[in-house]
Structures are given as C-alpha cells and as structure tokens.
Design a protein that fits this description.
Layout (H helix, E strand, L loop, with lengths): L3 H20 L6 H5 L1 H8 L1 H4 L5 H24 L2 H5 L6 H4 L4 E2 L3 H24 L3 H20 L4 E2 L1
Length: 157
C-alpha cells in the first residue's frame, strides 16, 4: 500500500514536471508560466523538503527558477551566443522571432527538460532537501539544448 505522503509527493513532482514542460514548449507564455514553479515548490515544500525553513525554501525555489532561464537570458542580453557561435535553444521561447520548423523539435526538448526537473524534484523529496531540485532546474536548459541539437531541425524566422 502506498503512503498518502508518498502519493502527494509524487503528485507534486508530476505537477512540477508538467509546468516545466509547458514552460519550455510554449513561446511568450512559458517564462511567466514558469513563475508558478517557485510558488509551487515553496508552498508545497512539506511534500518535497519539509525540514527546510520557510525563508530558505523560498530562496532555493527562486534560485531554481533562475536556473531554468539562465542560458536564454545570457543569450539574449550578452554577446555569448555570437561569440560562441551557438544558438541557445530556449531563447526563442522568451522572444519568439524564430522557432523550430516542426512540432517534434518543440515537444521532445521540452519533455527532456521536464524529465530532468521531475528527477530533481523526486530526488529532493526523497532526501528532504531542495538542492537536487535546484541542480535539476539549472541542468534542465542544458538537457533542452542537447536534445534539440540531436534532433534534425531548422529555426524558421
């Protein structure tokens, strides 16, 4: 028999994965939608990392949210992408001037990022500390980038 707390933790992890996946799949709306994540993880912390004090939980949650978008923001507001000659896969979600030419190039990378987020949130709920969730949130855009790079696609403007 599954314990009620475990079932609730699994539901919170699934909700985190769903929000992260949608954030990485829907241009313009993804960034504001992802603002649900720090609120969600902080408010439902008792299912994820209950012994962490409230203020520290909020800090961890906000740092995780920043991790979801750091490559895109660096790519948009610094000359990083032009220096390195690379296209940052999540930048088009913030300012959709261009986008992938087919739906698989949108959905599959978003699913990869969502899986990374889900694994981090699940790990955090097992060890009862937020750092795995934060690590996963910072790795999610890299999973998105790698997955998109492996898919044959073109960016259409």
């Amino acid at each position: 028999m599954v314990k009620p707390g475990l079932r609730a933790s699994a539901a919170v992890v699934a909700l985190i994965a769903a929000v992260a996946g949608c954030a990485y799949a829907v241009p313009l709306i993804g960034l504001p939608l992802s603002l649900i994540l720090p609120l969600l993880t902080h408010r439902l912390r008792r299912y994820l990392w209950s012994p962490v004090p409230s203020r520290r939980s909020l800090t961890w949650s906000l740092v995780a949210w920043a991790g979801l978008w750091w490559p895109a923001l660096l790519g948009l507001f610094t000359p990083l992408s032009s220096w390195a000659g690379l296209e940052i896969s999540t930048s088009w979600l913030i300012i959709p001037l261009c986008g992938p030419d087919h739906l698989a190039a949108v959905i599959v990378p978003a699913l990869a990022a969502a899986v990374v987020c889900a694994l981090g949130a699940a790990w955090a709920s097992v060890i009862r500390h937020p750092w795995p969730w934060v690590l996963a949130a910072w790795l999610a855009p890299l999973a998105h980038q790698l997955t998109l790079a492996l898919l044959p696609h073109e960016m259409v403007c």
